[in-house]
Amino acid sequence: MKKKILMVCLGNICRSPLAEGIMSSIAPEDFIIDSAGTSDYHIGESPDKRSVETARKYGIDITSQRGRQFKTSDFDEFDHILVMDQSNFNDVIAKARDEEDRKKVRMILEYAPDTSTREVPDPYYGGKDGFEKVYDLLTRACDGFLRNHYPEAGRQS
Ligand code: 4NP
Fold first, then answer.
1. Residue 50 is a catalytic residue
2. Domain containing 126: what range?
3. What is the pTM of this model?
4. CATH number of 32's domain
């Protein structure tokens, strides 16, 4: 069975598109990675230019992604749902139907143990530095996630 991972933030244009791009670039080929927003603010939109530029700088193309909203059926579709901050966590958990759904949801920085923050800061209203910071946090978290859950996958790549 292919493993499926969903990245979730508020708008699905800044943080979770970067998380999707980073995870897609390091996970084995048979993994399916997607992203969604808890809000309906940016449905159908391309990722924020600053996320596109940051990803491109590190050789990752996220331009084909389009914003979509998190939905309850995502609990059926995905094995892991990784959220960026506490507010995303609360919004996703509020849609969970049972313990099986709830067990799939994790704060992504749980997997980046060397970081001092639990939340990936929302870079939307800030400058370019914020996107570099997000990229750095997410790179460490994605690597930590694969090592934790799929150590055999981590060794391949
Ligand atoms: P994201 O950032 O959740 O990382 O995609 C945001 C993007 C847009 C808005 C908020 C956060 N907004 O309020 O439109």
1. no
2. 4-149
3. 0.97
4. 3.40.50.2300
Ligand 1 mean position, distance from CA 70 (Å): 14
155 belongs to a structural domain: no
DSSP 45-100: PPPPHHHHHHHHHTT---TT----B--TTHHHH-SEEEESSHHHHHHHHHH--SHH
Ligand 1 pocket at CB < 6 A: 9-15, 41, 122, 124
For the chain, the domain total comes to: 1
Query: Does residue 70 lie within any of the structural domains?
Result: yes
Instruction: Dump pLDDT digits (tens) for 109-144.
Output: 999 988 989 999 999 999 889 999 999 999 999 999
- Report how far ligand 1's centroid is from the alpha carbon of 14 (Å): 6
